[in-house]
Amino acid sequence: MPTAPQNTDELYQALQENDQRPYGRTRTVTAEELVDAAEQFAEPLPLVHALLELQEAYTYGSEPRKSPVVFARLLTLFDEQPDLFDDRLRHQLFWRFKWVAHALRQLPEVPLASLRQWLTEMRDRYEKAGLGLQPYYGQAYQLAAHVGEDTSLAYELWAGRTRTRLSDCEACEICQRALHHLGAGDDERALRAWEPVLAGKESCKEEPARSASYALLPLLRTGRADRARELHLAGYRSCRRNPSMSEEVGRHLEFCALTGNEARGLELLAENRNLFDEVDSPLDQLGFLTGVEVLLQRVELLGHGEQPAAGYPGRTWTVAGLRAEVRGRADDLAARFDARNGTTAHTDRRRARLDRAPLLDALELTLRPRSLDDTAPAVPVAAPAARTAAVPDSLPELIARARKLDEQGHPDAQACWARLRTLVAAGDYTHPEDPAVGPPARLRADLLADEANRAGNKDEFAAAAELHEEAAALYDAVGQPGDAALARACALLATAEIPADDATDQADDTGAKAAALTAAHTAMVRLHEETSGLAPYQEARLLRLRATALALRLQTSRSDEHVAPVLAEVELLHDFATRHDIVGQISGALQLRASTYAISGHLPAAVAQTDALLEQLKAHGPAWHLPRALGLRGRLQLGLRDAKAAHADLSEGLRLAAEWPADAVDTTRLHGDLAEACMHLGRPDEALRHLTRSAELDLRHGSRTDAYCTYSNAARLSLDLGRVEDCIALLDSLLAEPDIAAGEVDDRLVAQLRLTRARALHEGEDLKAATAEFVALAAESAGWDDDPGSHAMIAAETAVLLGEAGEFGRAREAADQALAAHARAPRYEQLSNCLRELARLQAQQQGPDGLTEALAFLADAGRIADEARTAEYEAHGRSLDTALAYEHGRVNAYAGEYEDALTALDKALALLGEPGTDNDRAGEWAECTRLAAAVEGLYLERPAPALTRLDAAISQLTALGHTEETEPLTSLAGRLRDEEVRPG
Description:
About 75% of the residues lie in helices and about 0% in strands. It is mainly alpha-helical. α30 packs antiparallel against α31. The protein is globular and about 105 Å long.
């Protein structure tokens, strides 16, 4: 708090502002400071309000030790000055007897006799005040359940009584009843009791998040896995990082452990690391730690005990180390509660949770299903394949096999090189004395060349070029000129692909890259001519590199004059590979030829070449080229708009790809292309699965930017499909990635992820969180001088959310930012939509008082429409002028200016024109007519002309076949006729 309140008005304002903060240390510390400030004033009422705020902060901030102390001060004030407490304050005071009872149960150092004594105090106070005792019996039941006594009588004494104004809310009582049935082993009855809360019909600060966490396992046990998944996603988001809901977080961790989602469990544990330090309630700690232990126990059982885990601050933890620490603390807490209560209930309940076997082997909880291997800190590896590469145990055999497979371009070479890299890096490595193996420098060169190839596959061209040059020098040193020439040719190609730093625009960049590839090709030809003694496979590979350089030049320039040189080089490669029966390069030549035809726009010829390629591969191999060839034909079919054929080829390619390492057969691209085919076929859910698989493979192989871009597309698609919680869970997981959290990823890409998340939060009706994210994004994008259009869009959406929240002053500021950015990079439709919506919101929420500001928004929208007309801009949706006239009608109607509203609506109808048989604006015309008739007939009390308007519109729309659009008009007409005949 910057400065202490100087008077009671400032104090009340500060209390109101603190009430808007989330529960946690900031809110609690501010509440403590406000109590100190309130004590300085002579009048005691401000202190009452400050103490009430402080007790709430302690209660929902998980600090139960302090809540009873504050309440004692309030009770003293009530006893000494009861007149201070009006009906509302008195209600709050008696309500909070339950808070104190709850707080005392959470503290094992408080004797059981003291808990019972407090309940007696509560009952006596309620009776003296003439209040019903149902709330008291509710607390007595909860104490019996906590202690582990027979709860049958206590439950009946509570549940059988009529509710009072001081009873817990319906949602909380439903949860207690459901937990009673759950404790009796009746899952079905518990779930039936929970249904109003889980369906969202009853809610409060803690519900339905609390009930959802308890319902997860009963839903699994009764075969409702999909419902459990839904509640996990929505419920977890409501309680994450919240100290007062740490028990609920623990149950979500347990749910992950029991459904094959251990990796997600560790991710959520890391997100909630603050709970190890911020939960002051021993009972909440016990619930949280037991859930954590269930997860860690499962991870350790699966052989990942040495994997890092997020735990208590101040040190790093492994799964095994953290589990031991958690077990000791939780065992101690359970023992302390049981000693206080004189039972074994808490130890028994804890043991039951830890002994519970997994309920499902695998339940796909999110769009990003990952295994523990995916989350372990290790060098990225290829996706598990159905076959495993044979790696010889003998070192000479391993080196010989790696080189032989590398000559063939066989994917299994990767496994051999990976094994060799590990062996060579070991401190006890001894190079074999074998002439066939050669000296250590040759093996180092081989490993450098493999590392360079992997860098190039990740578009790390500068690193690849440097590694290839280093390998070439070693090959020269050990008398391997052919390998040296290949390494230098690879370095030439990698260097040509390094993006130019000094290109001023796209044309400069394209020209520079094309020139670089031309130079690389020329140098390769010279290198080829100057190198003698090449083995056939080396010469074929040099020819392949030459053709690839020209193919990349064509891909860059898209120039017709670059087509023939590629085809000429491909012909050389094909003839040479055919003479020497090098099947991998024959396939490579055919694929380059097909790609060249595709790039130059000759798709039928490209398909024919791909057909020939597939026939060649099926007859002669190599088998690992089939997935790529099918992928190429699938992409060509997409270009020919034959999505069904494309889907068949790509699916077959993906099936065959399962036999090989994912990066060797480009499984990532197969998934991405299949997603596109699925979208064309109207199968968006299948497309979503392929997008997420593609992204995760990219992430696994280290192509993180590509992965985040694909995941961004997947998130937007999931939001379009209405899978809001899936979208939020996916983005939460991505935004927690270490490189994103550390600010190492492109800020615009991260902003796009956050923007989609903010939209999803808005769609999920979390207006507060969505608005906060939009406001932050608007502030950041204000500095994007190179992209004012994006800032205009973000600021406009921010303004609308602020308007929905009723903060029209801030909304006006955000709209002005959007308008300023729009002046530099026009976004006519987005800005018009934003301004009209702001006008509607202000008029709807404030009525006549908001009319002036609402009309100011519409005036801005009018200027936007004028600019668009001058620029000959055509809106993708509604006409900006028509939409503006309609909004003038709505805004004036909300403000009670009905004549102006009717005039505006008539103008909108004139701009719309008459509907036609194929007019897709018939619905818009019908709605405009309905609103005009409502204003005229209901508010201006002129039913006759309104009915004439409606009857004519109904007849016209019916004649045109728009029967659905007539329904609201018919309903309004019936209402107007009823009011005409109703006696005054």
